[in-house]
Amino acid sequence: MSEIKTPLPLPDNYNPQTHLLAKVTENGVFHETRAGAAFAHRLVANGADEDLALAETVLDVVLGCQERRAGDPHHGNFTWMLEDDHVEDLNAVEFNLEHLIPLMLRHADRLPTALQARVLDVIRLGLDEIRRLDVSVAYTNICLLDVLNTSLGGELLGERAIAERGYRKLAAWMAFTDSQGIAFEWNSPTYGGVDIRALKLLADLTRDDETRIRARTAAARMGLSIALHIHRTTGRWAGPHGRAYHPSVVCETPPEINLVRGWIADGTLPAWLTDALDARPEAFEVSETAHAGREMGITTYHSRSFVLGTASKEYTGQSNVLMAHTARPGAAPFDTLRVQRPGVLYTRYLTNDKWLGDFYHATDRTKTRNLIEEGQFYGVQSGSRAIGLYAPPRSPGVISSAKACFIFTERQQIDEIWVGGRRIETLPTDVAAGEVVVVGSGGPRDGGALIAICPLSRRNLGRDAPIRLVERPSTSSGGAPSTSSGGDLVLEIYNYLGPKKAFWELGWPGLFYQGRPWCGVYLEMAERTDYPDGGAFAQAVANGQLVDEVAPPFTYAGEGERPWMVEYRRDGHTLGIEVDLMEWRLKRRWTERGEIGWPMLESPVARQTNTGRVEVGDPSTGSGRAIVACGQGPAWLFASPATGRYVAGYHGLRPAPLTLTVPGGRVEVPEMGIGTVVWDNGRVTVEAVGVKGEPLVGEQLSAD
């Protein structure tokens, strides 16, 4: 007797007139085609008779949104919305096929024969558009969707040439990423999930064993980076972020630690990554490089009550280049999860006094509202100290203001503000260059954090450009004033405030150009329990030696530099950065240990190099020390002495012998290609391409 299946409950935003899921904005009602494709997939997967009947109708609408007019340059792509009459967002084909191809691989037999043929025809045309677009390997999430759709689509259609293009693209993306460290689209809570989902689907559904292992290995390495950026106390995916939508930035979304634990629980990420969340130091620093040639690296420091992250430079207008999350034990819990919402500090350079709610992401009238980064940034961080340098956009046009904003969310959760040793009770208040601003929240007994910001020198393009603390209305991602979080506290550092004007002196090539305008801050964080109050912390920061030197101006003719150097020293620690204002180019960054390089991955528990040898642990004592040696090529190592688990990843282009040495044991793999070796208290698991020979395990331990 066949099982009677219960139909899926219809989503609240299901529109029976269009048979798609509606999205309501002040500009009208819209229907995303990709959401329709995902909805159809869910209906077919559930398989109730009512679901299958509705899925046919939904698919008819979605498939009708494919561009099929002869001569269109994006023949085979999809409109982003049902309401659109042309293809504008080129990624629509990826996001639609991401659902249509798995639907057909898993459940094609649940559709009528004629509809199956129609879906396959749509997929074939879509894959041809993906081939023509051939997205760059630097566009991480879309590249991985290309890999997913092309690999699985080629297998579905029985077209080996199409599938092999996908296999090759995965290898090319890994080679590009492995030459640097982390994905070019770095540390993105918005798009990291797209990446992980694509790699998981590929590993689950591909028929190509080598591609499956590559996908699982790439997901493990990406998952390690994600786990090392999850702050244990707040549960947030900490900055800096290469790209992030506003709900993630201000923690309107659930804590990302729940997402990562879910990925581990369902096998999307390997089980050993639990140790990267739970069996690591409470205070530690992790640094990674996205692209050394483009000077893109990130540093994040975790402490009990806060986490601070700084990027060496911005990636896109969606970047969070200098960002902190702080525990707020007294804050209201987040929805029903009973997780307290943390405080967030994030930064933006803005012209014309824009604010959240003034515009949407990109040009799409239906996408999430964001506060777009307009400036250019260079930063350096060591531990809980950072320096951030800003310049306005290279061609600001006609503007009435230009300022760097340091935005503290939820003003009502901040319980002390200090400026130059004065406790501030009312806003707005002016701040002088060099005065230390301290913001504190979270009780000293329960845990909380202090943030000190000292404005640096700046170029004033007008007469009365202020530096001031103000309260700005906080708005939700939908643009409406927030009723739950109150306003945001903002430190505004203006380069210009005045009548609308164009600036001849900023044009290059130009006859008046003497370099970019500049502004910036020295920033430091501390546990609230480390100081009696914010005033004491402000005094400690002010006692340090701050050097802020800008070379004299000269009219630029394409030769010469105008350096801006900032250095801060205190308690034997030094942090410094220097840029050229003429070309807005990073010259150097340093600490008391010397010049800062571009580590692929550096932390107390995990490292990556491209030398074929990686060590983790204290070499002076040998405590918890682990070593992987694998000839030449990128390799990474994660060590968890507390749990007895060690993981080595090899990403070399050629097979090589690999040896993993851990406290009390050793395993040798005679030859392996891309893959991982897991040591779990003497139990060894090898998953790699082209493994030859049996792993040899040290005599004092037994192999499993």
The portion of residues assigned to helices is: 10-25%
**How many β-strand stretches?**
37
Instruction: Please list the strands of the largest sheet in the order they lie side by side.
Output: 16-19-20-13-10-7-6-5-4-27-28-31-32-35-36
Structural class: alpha+beta
Instruction: Report the principal-axis shape.
Output: globular
Distance between the termini: 44 Å
Radius of gyration: 27 Å
Number of helices: 12
Note the main sheet.
Answer: 15 strands, antiparallel
Average pLDDT across residues? Answer: 93
Into which percentage range does the β-strand content fall? 25-35%
| Residue windows where pLDDT falls under 50 for at least 5 positions | 477-485, 699-704
Supply the key terms.
disordered C terminus; 30% strand; 15-stranded antiparallel beta sheet; alpha+beta; 704 residues; seven-stranded antiparallel beta sheet; 12 helices
Describe, in plain words, how this protein is organized in 3D:
There is one protein chain. With 704 residues, the chain is an alpha+beta fold. Among the domains are: 333-581, no CATH class; 605-697, no CATH class. The chain is built from twelve helices and 37 strands. α1 runs parallel beside α3 and α5 packs parallel to α7. 49% of the residues are buried.
